[in-house]
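Q: You know discrete backbone vocabularies at least as well as I do. I have my own habits and do not want them to colour yours. No explanation is needed for now; the record alone will do.
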Amino acid sequence: MNFTKGGSFLLSPTDPQDVFTPEDFTEEHKMISKMVNDFVTDKILANMEDLEAKKEGMIRELLEAAGELGLLGADVPEEYDGMDLDKISSTIIAEGFGRSGSFAMTQGGQTGIGSLPIVLFGNPEQKKKYLPGTVSGEKIAAYALTEPGAGSDALAAKTKAVLSADGQFYILNGSKQFITTAGMADIFIVYAKIDGNKFSAFIVDGNSEGLSTGTEEKKMGIKGSSTRVVVFEDVKVPVGNLLFEIGKGHVVAFNVLNMGRQKLAANSIGHAKFALELSATYANERQQFKTPIANFGLIKEKLAEMAIRIYAFESMVYRTGGLLDNILHGVDISGPNGGQIAAKGIEEYALECSMNKVFATEAVAYVVDEGVQIHGGYGYISEYPIERLYRDARIYRIFEGTNEINRILIPTTISRRVAKGDLDLKQALEKLKEQLNAGVITREGTRDLVQAAKDIFIYTFGAGLDKYGDKLLKQQEILGRLADLAMGAFAMESAWLREQKALAKDGETGTKLKTSMTEAFIYSHIGKLELIAKDTIAALVEGEALRALALDLRKLAVYTPKNVIALRQEIAAAVSEAGKFVV
């Protein structure tokens, strides 16, 4: 099977023709996009006030309506009433629901972490019993992992399962916290330790005796979604509802979270585009000093940078969607263990999913914050949707593994793949040092700066290994900075590959705006990566050794600056004219 290894972008170039971009959408993809956007506009945004007030029965009604359109079954096999669509389609659906505020969390929970554990790890009987209902929306699914004392440290969970004397049931006791859709869920994916030490996953029916939920949490944002504590008091779970294998709950949880992170990044695209649309429209209409504020330079800067960051992480997310599709098309997932085979394929890009999640959720945070700023005082008033978007976006950096946890996972995953021989970092580092010994590496244009970003990561990572060796993985401050360097390289390359692919098809004129966004992002980002790297090496060595490493880093990024102010003016003009994100 031919596929690109996860993380290999750091060590080798990628052919632009090998990446998937939004410009590659098929007619079916475009139809799906229109369908979900129409649904969100007509059914959700038009009823946002009732949704935010948790109008009785509304979430179930909306889920069933989405189910009728096939918007809940993209990742479910056809034999269980699903659509069995490609990962680009499910990414498009997630992006579209990113505009739907709190309902995005409900829909995401239903189609992602709520049902994917059964899709990927359930046996045929479990799939037949539970999946058709989640696809139609008749059954609402919830994912019960987090506990009062176990959030990111999921394996520290205290919920316990004990086999009954007759061997027919597992008896569950414990509690879960911050569980989305808990107030109305018919199915819970619950993680508990069998005999207090074998971390395992279970499918628990919502009407089980002894299962109860607390009152609704009063949240900062995503107010329309249900969030409650779930309590298990001697809950009997049939042994047939054990999901996957005893003691393998972590395999279920962590593999499902890979797709959860990818979909949350896709949600962020829709959320950010909506915020930019609201902001551009407001800036065009709001006048100060007898002119629209969209004409003011510092407002142009904001609109442009919002668009640039959206362009960058949209490129990352759909590139990863293409990688996922490619690997899944190359394996046979038709058999009884097909879900587990698919999960293994998805795991290949756990690194990219984590990078997308962190970069996208922090980018959308920037976009909504600037959106409020553009609205001025009105942005602080709940009558204006940007106020809700600002609040709703805050949870994104906490969901699906906090960004801090994901920042640790990124270099940890790279380290493990280096140790396994999947990534030959040693050879790349030796080659880079030979180039440095030969003199300054002059960079000309965006392609060279993309390579510079990769080189900065490789060099800094190597310096970390020289200092700490295997103990590097215990240095969280260093790991966080290495994660930022890897993400920066992936974002820069993804933007550049998208532009180059478009350039080959549409020529310079047809690609002008993409080129401007790519250049503005890369030229303004490379300096930030160099600073991060310098901060990192200063924590590793000192004195002459530090001066030598700093000089090497300087050699890696010698380039002529670009007039990014002019590029942003051009981008802002296009956004203002369109009144929304445009490429």
